[in-house]
């Protein structure tokens, strides 16, 4: 066990900042995203006749996805504490997503993405210094999330790496919260940047990462799809992708 902990310590003791993404700090006075930032739906429910997003089209919808392969990789190895397992996976999801986003920063600009969109009429909001929910450009929003997350992952009180230290009782809550934010970034990338993902020929890797993320989130009850549901109960953006993968048997129902 101690060698496992040590290896996590080494893992997490890696670069303090990702080489591809250098988030700024929250200098502008925006609050950390606790307890929960909001979402807004504009212009009513999306038209059912609207054009199907590319990521739902063949062959992209099933690029590199193998039926039934995700259940086994999300299960914790024998004798490993569940909190440790969730922590290591959160760390990996954060870094992998950060790398993908790093390749998209030329496209995810203030001009191209003036809001944190994740569906035809869905924007995610962020609390300002008065705790009012405001719309921010996607790169600013994502920068805030990544900075907040990096700080959290480096915090020994939240993610203990030293042998003998316990996870705090609030860890499950924190993990859920982190998951929500990573999910929003996935949702924005699929909605706004899937064409660039195709251009970079990384759709197979990106689909695999997201399917792994969904399967892991379901296994450990970290995922809240309701973020993508309109008040009328219609799913937007990647909600459709998750449904599709369940239909195809790639993810468990
Ligand atoms: Zn963007």
TrEMBL record:
Pfam families the record matches: Mob1_phocein (PF03637)
Binding residue positions for Zn(2+): 108, 113, 188, 193
Phosphoprotein as UniProt keyword: no
InterPro entries to which the protein is assigned, alphabetical: MOB_kinase_act_fam, MOB_kinase_act_sf
Region described as Disordered: spans on this chain: 11-45
Coiled coil location: none
SUPFAM superfamilies: Mob1/phocein
Keywords for the protein's UniProt record, in alphabetical order: Metal-binding, Zinc
Protein name from the UniProt record: Maintenance of ploidy protein mob2
Biological classification of the source: Eukaryota, Fungi, Dikarya, Basidiomycota, Agaricomycotina
């Amino acid at each position: 066990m101690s060698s496992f902990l040590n290896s996590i310590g080494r893992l997490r003791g890696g670069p303090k900042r990702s080489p591809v993404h250098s988030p700024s700090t929250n200098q502008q006075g925006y609050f950390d995203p606790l307890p929960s930032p909001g979402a807004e739906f504009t212009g009513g429910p999306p038209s059912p006749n609207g054009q199907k997003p590319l990521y739902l089209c063949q062959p992209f919808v099933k690029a590199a996805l193998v039926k039934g392969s995700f259940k086994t990789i999300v299960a914790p190895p024998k004798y490993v504490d569940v909190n440790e397992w969730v922590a290591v996976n959160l760390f990996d999801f954060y870094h992998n997503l950060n790398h993908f986003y790093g390749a998209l920063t030329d496209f995810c600009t203030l001009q191209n993405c003036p809001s944190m969109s994740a569906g035809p009429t869905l924007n995610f909001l962020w609390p300002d210094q008065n705790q009012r929910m405001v719309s921010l450009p996607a790169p600013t929003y994502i920068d805030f999330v990544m900075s907040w997350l990096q700080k959290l992952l480096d915090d020994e009180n939240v993610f203990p790496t030293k042998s003998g230290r316990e996870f705090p009782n609030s860890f499950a809550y924190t993990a859920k919260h982190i998951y929500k934010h990573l999910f929003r970034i996935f949702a924005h990338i699929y909605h706004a940047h899937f064409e660039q993902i195709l251009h970079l020929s990384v759709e197979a890797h990106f689909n695999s990462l997201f399917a792994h993320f969904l399967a892991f989130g379901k296994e450990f009850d970290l995922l809240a799809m309701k973020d993508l549901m309109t008040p009328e109960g219609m799913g937007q953006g990647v909600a459709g992708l998750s449904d599709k993968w369940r239909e195809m048997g790639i993810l468990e129902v």
